[in-house]
Amino acid sequence: MTKINMKGKNVVTTQELSVDEIRALLKLAAEMKGDRYADKWAELMKRQTFIMFFYNPSLRTRQSFEAAATELGGHAQFIEPKAMRLKGVKKGDLEVAGETIHDAAKVMDRYATGLGIRILETSVDNYGDGNQLLREYAKYTDIPVINMADDIYHPCQGLADMLGMQEHNNNQPTKGKTILQTWAKGALARSYCSVHESLLINSRMGVNVKLAFPDDAYELPKDIIEKAKRNAEEAGGTFEIIKGGDPKAAYENVDFVYSRNWFGKDFYEIGKAAEIERASSDKYKDWICDEEKMKTANPGCKFIHPMPVDEGAEVTREVNQGPRSIILDVAENRLHVQKAIMAMTIAGYEVEL
Amino acid sequence: MTKINMKGKNVVTTQELSVDEIRALLKLAAEMKGDRYADKWAELMKRQTFIMFFYNPSLRTRQSFEAAATELGGHAQFIEPKAMRLKGVKKGDLEVAGETIHDAAKVMDRYATGLGIRILETSVDNYGDGNQLLREYAKYTDIPVINMADDIYHPCQGLADMLGMQEHNNNQPTKGKTILQTWAKGALARSYCSVHESLLINSRMGVNVKLAFPDDAYELPKDIIEKAKRNAEEAGGTFEIIKGGDPKAAYENVDFVYSRNWFGKDFYEIGKAAEIERASSDKYKDWICDEEKMKTANPGCKFIHPMPVDEGAEVTREVNQGPRSIILDVAENRLHVQKAIMAMTIAGYEVEL
Amino acid sequence: MTKINMKGKNVVTTQELSVDEIRALLKLAAEMKGDRYADKWAELMKRQTFIMFFYNPSLRTRQSFEAAATELGGHAQFIEPKAMRLKGVKKGDLEVAGETIHDAAKVMDRYATGLGIRILETSVDNYGDGNQLLREYAKYTDIPVINMADDIYHPCQGLADMLGMQEHNNNQPTKGKTILQTWAKGALARSYCSVHESLLINSRMGVNVKLAFPDDAYELPKDIIEKAKRNAEEAGGTFEIIKGGDPKAAYENVDFVYSRNWFGKDFYEIGKAAEIERASSDKYKDWICDEEKMKTANPGCKFIHPMPVDEGAEVTREVNQGPRSIILDVAENRLHVQKAIMAMTIAGYEVEL
After folding, report:
1. How far apart are CA B145 and CA C122, in angstroms?
2. Are C147 and C178 part of one and the same domain?
3. Is C3 helix (H, G, I), strand (E, B) or coil?
4. How many CA atoms lie within 13 A of C103 on its CB side?
5. Would you call B59 and C98 a contact, using CB atoms and an 8 Å cutoff?
6. Closest Cα to residue A192, out of A202, A181, A204, A203?
7. CB contact under 8 A, C111 and B332
8. Are residues B101 and B235 both part of a single domain?
9. Cβ–Cβ of C79/B59 closer than 8 Å?
């Protein structure tokens, strides 16, 4: 028996947690899901404040974090930094009047016992700047900083995915199963963070990963791919990249299909309009998850997606709302894994493995 | 003795509740008002989340629902769907990228134990579209959906009105009393929902209803009138329409006066500016509730209004802030009836009649 | 022993509290800080609603009030009146359609047990109009109104300052110590309220006050100065005005330095852009608190500021983030004094002196 203690730990990406910490969070989340409103959870954040700091608004993330704090006996404050006059994080801006990140973070450290931050690509100039800003807050706070999605990582989504996959694998670890992570067409120019986190946590936990996308334009950042490959080696799984060809072929021997749009690697240069125009090209018209492709996969193959789903583009309604879809369970799991993260990092709740 | 159980029931309009359910809600609301912060109410939504989904913002509705959830031991989340990328409800919009109502509703169903929705005429194209959208959410959720006002109905307001009228009728049922529901001038182009609900619940509970308005332009939708007439017949009350003439004449033999502006029946075609111009015409200058008219009514006649009041147009300050006015009691009752609705539909609290 | 009871009392400025009431609030705030999440505080606002009414948004004020209500067992609603259609407070506006302050206040009085209001110079036409509007709400409510900063006063900041100064004076009363309140350059055209409140509470509690500013443009309103002088006389302290000269000279014999920008006395006529241009003039370049000036002060002299700090203009990073700075303790104290105010005025918690 090992006791896992994460008190005070920041959660920036599952990649920076130990495998045991990931297991402990999943175990606690499952237990919390099984007995959701039990009084035993209500002492964990009793009358404490969790600050949700949204550089980018998000309905689902807000709903699930706010409910998580409530269910732990605390309260989550919904804050948008646009109401603040903060000194910028961009190089040339140091002389702008306003408060430093240092000061803003240090004060929140006094008022709250946990700090969630969400900052996506639309709030920054360059890939990675959002993650860097989040880490700057974390540098100045003693309270745990929890990543509510940035421009690289999304640990809560990764954990919710993994919990959902376990639930639909007879509540067994998913090691040895295979997931297809496939690019999908669509007009939403979606961010990388959920896709990255899925690649990282799946490869980490020994799930075989097939990553499919149509062409060079939709290659994912090299450092993420390198990390996922190393994860797979260490966990004894496989990591396969399938560029181009018939999107259906990639579905063979697969237990879970994760079909989602993401923007191209030149997105930060070309911008959203150009990205949407490209992704809407007729040449990508088959990059949608449909029942026909699903029949190529293993029997009982499930459809997984971090939601919101762009139905009719990323996946057909038949699959999305059909018996293969586990998206609602995964969405619900956001709540439970976030409760587990808050319980372990903020309250120091210990989990035995 | 009958035990009334409304667990899981949606509350779209009082018209779709049974008379016994209305009585049970009023009885519980009065009891809650009498012992507002008692611990016994605090278990009903303990650490549960109620989502307030505001297509149209509203201060009072938000304040009263948020306080209601707090007083029941829960927490109300203030959510504005404008932060969401939702597929539209309008016909031509089906191809717009974004999430379906189905998916959005199904996820809220997982996070919360109750869902309030507010959607008024300014958020939709045609009369009734708001109500239809609300019903679409209700179709996909297992948790109760509570109408926080749509473009047709406003059940919480109707119940609050009725509770206030009872309080000012020596805490006796108002059957046999008479209410004048009169159009009033003003520059606010006000929605129908509160007025409709008042007509429906009063006629339902056996209150005699006089509906007065100046001319054809301000006729109310036929289906509401038909329902109210049928309600009156079934309850043994009267329902009288007074079109035009001296607005003062309608005050005779009346116990409650409800004077409020509403927009004309061609509002959805002519729009707000044209409506306001028409309603501001000099020919309507006497359509205001004042002390002189009130003297024509029965002794002790009360002034009722769902607030916010457009003082100086719908009613004089003398009446609005004078001893006849029961508006503040009614406004307070919003809180209590909403607590009762949440207790009965969400927590399954049973009321004996 | 005196028992101090403030139940139902409005807190508009510390100037309108008795010295004993100020002492009681500081004593309770210190006790609450020492045992922050104790169950004994959780009954004080159990399931009650505190309305935070923000004519001007403020992150810190919101965070600290919302946390304060949570820690007392209640819930703070974040409300922005811009969502309301209110009749204006300005003279010519009486005919505007919308709700009266009377009605809005009377309804909040029913829903909540306390009302915080924030209204700064940018929401009104003339100096003092914000304070007048706040007093109008207070006139109509029975529940306590707490000033969350207006265009003249900021009692919570004044109390937080004083508590922080005591903490850094070996937890002893600060009577007989000396504070330098100095104007600082900067491009933020800052409001008077924190500075006023500091002058008033310091002079009231017997702290010697030195008020320094560069020239006639930055004179503070006469009525505040007169009150502060009278306070000093009554408390047996000194009150000194230093206009112009070397900003460093004012640091002599000082125990606390409060360096902050404020806008000029003609701000309401010239507006923000002109004020910022003037304040940025090169002739003010030495009006910054730096380590060199601090060395002129008494040994152990502390830097105090209500935050957010405009680092590099009002104070150097060396001082602001260095060992002299007590700004974070003061910011944290906002929470504790606000809890004490709510406990005493809303819950009637009594403090023995």
Report:
1. 40
2. no
3. strand
4. 26
5. no
6. A181
7. yes
8. no
9. yes
CATH number at residue B18: 3.40.50.1370
User: What is the value of ipTM here, to two decimals?
Assistant: 0.95
Beta bridge partners of A311: A315
C139 and B CB contact within 8 Å: no
Question: Is A105 near chain C, with CB under 8 Å?
Answer: no
- Tell me the nearest-neighbour CA distance from C117 into chain B, angstroms: 15
Q: Does residue A339 share a domain with residue A317?
A: no
Q: Is residue A158 part of a domain?
A: no
Residue B82's alpha-carbon distances to A123, B128, B140, C22, in angstroms, are 19, 20, 20, 45
Domain span including residue C240: 169-325
Judge if C173 and C306 occupy the same domain. Answer: yes
Angle at B331 (CA atoms; ends B329, B337), nearest 5 degrees: 95
Same domain, B121 and B232: no
Chain B residues within 8 A of C75 when measuring between CB atoms: 66-67, 70, 75
Q: How many distinct structural domains can be found in chain B? A: 2
Q: State how far Cα A95 lies from the chain centre.
A: 34
Q: Does A1 contact chain C (CB < 8 Å)?
A: no
Q: Is residue B18 part of a domain?
A: yes
Per-residue H/E/C for C252-319: CCCCEEEEECCCCCCHHHHHHHHHHHHHCCHHHCCCCECHHHHHHCCCCCEEECCCCCCECCCECHHH
Q: Which residue has the tokens 């189905």?
A: B102
Same domain, A35 and A141: yes
C140: Cα separation from own chain's centroid: 24
Neighbours of chain C (3+ CB pairs under 8 A): A, B
Per-residue pLDDT of chain C (353 residues), as tens digits, is 899 999 999 999 999 999 999 999 999 999 999 999 999 999 999 999 999 999 988 889 999 999 999 999 999 999 988 755 565 544 344 445 678 899 999 999 999 999 999 999 988 889 999 999 999 999 999 999 999 999 999 999 999 999 999 999 999 999 999 999 999 999 899 999 999 999 999 999 999 999 999 999 999 999 999 999 999 999 999 999 999 999 999 999 999 999 999 999 999 999 999 999 999 999 999 999 999 999 999 999 999 999 999 999 999 999 999 999 999 999 999 999 999 999 999 999 999 99
Asked if residue C113 belongs to a domain, the reply is yes
Task: Show the 3-state SS of chain B.
Answer: CCEECCCCCCECCHHHCCHHHHHHHHHHHHHHHHCCCCHHHHCCCCCCEEEEEECCCCHHHHHHHHHHHHHCCCEEEEECHHHCCECCCCHHHCCCCCECHHHHHHHHHHHCCEEEEEECHHHCCCCCHHHHHHHHHHHHCCCCEEEEEECCCCHHHHHHHHHHHHHCCCCCCCCCCEEEEEECCCCCCCCCHHHHHHHHHHHHCCCEEEEEECCHHHCCCHHHHHHHHHHHHHHCCCEEEEECCCCCHHHCCCCEEEEECCCCCCHHHHHHHHHHHHHCCHHHCCCCECHHHHHHCCCCCEEECCCCCCECCCECHHHHCCCCECHHHHHHHHHHHHHHHHHHHCCCCCEEC
Angle at C43 between CA C42 and CA C44, to 5 degrees: 95
Distant-in-sequence, close-in-space partners of C230: CB < 8 Å, separation ≥ 6: none
d(C-alpha C116, C-alpha B295), whole Å = 40
CB C193 within 8 A of CB C165: no
Asked if the structure places residue C164 within a domain, the reply is: no
pLDDT in tens, C90-113: 434 444 567 889 999 999 999 999
Examine the domain organization and report whether B133 and B187 are in the same domain. no
Asked whether the beta carbons of residue B74 and residue A70 sit closer than 8 angstroms, the reply is yes
Measured at the CA of B87, the angle between CA B85 and CA B93, to 5 degrees, comes to 130
Q: Which among C66, C75, C142 is the top mutation candidate for probing chain B, defined by the most B β-carbons within 10 Å of its own β-carbon?
A: C75
| B312 and B223 within one domain | yes
